[in-house]
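[Meeting: bench + compute handoff]

Bench side (C.D.) handed over the final construct sequence. Compute side (W.E.) agreed to return the predicted structure before the next meeting so the bench team could plan truncations. Sequence as handed over:
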Amino acid sequence: MTDLDTAHAAMTAAPDDDAKRLQFYERLADTEIFLLLAGEPEGDQVSPEVFDIADGRFALIFDREERLAEFVGRPAPYAGLSGRNLVQMLAGQGVGLGLNLQTAPSEMLIPAEAIDWLMATLQNEPTAEEARIEEIDAPKGLPENVITGLDRKLAMAAGLAKFAFLAAARYEGGGQGHILAFVDPVPGAEDVLAKAAGEALTFSGIAAGSIDVIFLRASDQMAAHLAKVGLRFDLPEPVVPEAPGAPGMNPDKPPRLT
């Protein structure tokens, strides 16, 4: 099963659980999607094949190339793109999505209104505020789905920071909450990291203001304290493609003899 299959099954098993529905739409935004096209792409311009049915107008998408091929049953043009880019392309067009139709347990029709809602949700931007932190302690009271949501979202931010710490915080004036501190972020990546954290909270059903995002250097005193009391998230290293070597120089890939 794919991530979308799993999220769809959880959502349909608990139709009144808003958190499960949010998690499904988060998976849709983060998944690579294969879109059936009306014709071959022209440069970076694509035209989806749109079908008119009684429930509205729908473009067809699949989360595996094999599923698209199985549905179509013939060679057909398609494009691979992220779910969020697809939503950006279709929002406001009055076009819904037919997901994995006749090919997977996650088959469903997603109405155009849901596409517009998802686009608006993904466009939510974090706001910058200043507050003085007086005390930091171990995180407490956060739902498990927030922790898993942060872990999953930060795993997709490869190379943008070394790691992050989640901790409880008490502010000057008596306010309390949680902070997510990114350590040694790549210059210019702060907005991307803050947005990723905000999305993790939004799709976990938690108000964005529940966790504040800060940025530190590893040499900062606060970073040392967070290492003792905070919950650490390690961001993966970016994948660097290996440069091709001379034939026969890699012992795991001996030269082919003809």
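W.E. noted at the follow-up: The chain is about 35% helix and 25% strand. C.D. will use this when planning the next construct.
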